């Protein structure tokens, strides 16, 4: 037989447990729904070094940037200057002979940077990066500069 005292205790206990569980549920849901906090500004402000550059003239449709700055990198990023350009089909060649194909098809205005390309694994030694491009304004050659994040 359930006495009124047991009923009150059960109700109070249920209320206490619910008050503890609801904030925890919202915390889990908000953590899952929250966007990744690697803001663009923060990602480009730390540990980025210039790896090399190429002038893309529109006469060829692909080019290779040989990495000038050796070391291990976790991510790459392009910057396009002097003229707008479209970059696609990026292939990263590592020093150990393996490759990574980044699914990138971006159009850049003059002076614009790409999104960050995260490399597989922890940090990798990059030998060169091959990419296809289109120079969007005939006459002015775009310069494509590659940056790496240590």
Question: Mind explaining what this structure looks like?
Answer:
This protein has helices at 4-33, 40-45; strands at residues 48-56, 62-66, 72-73, 75-81, 85-94, 99-108, 117-118, 124-135, 142-149. The protein is built from 2 helices and 9 strands. A hairpin with a 4-residue loop joins strand 5 and strand 6 (99-108). Helix content is 24%, strand content 43%. Strands 2, 3, 5, 6 and 8 form a 5-stranded antiparallel sheet that branches. A 4-stranded antiparallel sheet has the order 1-9-4-7, with no helix packed on it. The radius of gyration is 26 Å and the shape is elongated. It has 2 domains: 1-34; 40-149, C-terminal carbohydrate-binding module (Jelly Rolls).
Distance between the termini: 69 Å
Approximately how much beta-strand content do the residues carry? Answer: 35-45%
Number of strands: 9
Into how many domains do the coordinates divide? 2
CATH class identity of the largest domain: Mainly Beta
Helix- and strand-based class?
alpha+beta
Summarize the structure.
With 150 residues, the chain is of the alpha+beta class. 24% of the residues lie in helices and 43% in strands. The protein contains 2 helices and 9 strands, in the order ααβββββββββ.
Task: Break the fold down into its secondary structure elements and pairings.
Layout: H1 4-33, H2 40-45, E1 48-56, E2 62-66, E3 72-73, E4 75-81, E5 85-94, E6 99-108, E7 117-118, E8 124-135, E9 142-149
Antiparallel strand pairs: 1-9, 2-8, 3-8, 4-7, 4-9, 5-6, 5-8
